[in-house]
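FORM 7B: Structural annotation worksheet

SECTION A. Query
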Amino acid sequence: MGKGGEGGGPSSSRGVGTSANKKHSIGNLRYAADLRTFGFAFLWFASCIWQWRTRDCKEEFQSLAGFGYALVCFCITTLQAFQGGVSVHNAAHCPPFYNEQGLANRLFYLMLTIWNGAPVTAYVPGHNLSHHKYLQTRRDIMRTNKVNFGSQALNIIAFFPSILGSIQSNDFKYMQAQRRKGCAAARPPARSRHAAAAAAPARRARPPRPRIPLTAAPLAFAVGSSGTGTCRSRFCSTRC
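SECTION B. Predicted structure
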């Protein structure tokens, strides 16, 4: 597998299988701490199913108490969506299972794709191979100085829209190049897109009671804010 995502998989340079890492592993799972990620994922799916089956957003907005309840649900779902973004970020740097092209990692990526709403391996060209390789230079397509308002709140709001076009263009060129090389990196995103597409009918379905998109708004908010927050955390260093 190529280092730094050169056609191999969703991770940056790392040393795999060191004795120091093995002390914190459980079988094929590289870090026991990633069990928390699986727990967060379970809570996310459970929360979405519970809200979809029980909430009636039209009724909630007819009273102050209902609006307060909707606001609490929004905050909880936004936190869970942000956890999904962080989990995708960490998996792109360091797949949780040692066999990086194995079934366990592939199933994990599909789960993250549904959680995050976008193919996981599409994170590699823009984040690993641009942001980390050319940090804060003109070749970093998601450099933070693309927005430079005096208000940090405006910077957070405007950051994701400012880099979206560059990300889409860069991802397309990268996947086309990998496809020409016959590399495996161009194939997992396609399967991830199928997973996202399979989940789409449930999002579009008209339920018997009026509802607003219960997860779309929190996910959009979390993704926009994580663009400037996630990569400043300690997780952005190579974990493996």
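SECTION C. Observations
The first helix runs from residue 19 to 22. DSSP finds nine helices and no strands in the chain.

SECTION D. Sign-off
Analyst initials: ____
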